[in-house]
Amino acid sequence: xxxxxxxxxxxxxxxxxxGVVTGExxxxxxxxxDLFAGIRDIVGGRSASYEGALAEARSTAMNEMQDRAAALxxxxxxxxxxxxxxxxxxxxxxxxxxxxxID
Length: 103
Description:
It is a single chain. 32% of the residues lie in helices and 44% in strands. It is of the alpha+beta class. The strands form two sheets. The chain has a four-stranded mixed β-sheet. The chain has a two-stranded antiparallel sheet with strand order 3-4. It is elongated. The chain starts with a strand and ends with a strand.
């Protein structure tokens, strides 16, 4: 499935729009305790554990969004936006875009 932040796919025609699709995931408060317990892996001001957890959360949200697009009959998602929000000491990662069928 093609996933892009642009409103179209260059060189491809959008044949059908299927609507907005989203994917969300929440990293609980425990992950922050675990990550800071592993603070020793910080090199150059970066935490590999924290970056890995965020990458996994982002991947989960993106995969969920793509699954919903496929369920609507889409073969691409355009206009993708990623958002990160803190809610009650938990981190929510959300992905949204428009499911489309491209030729």
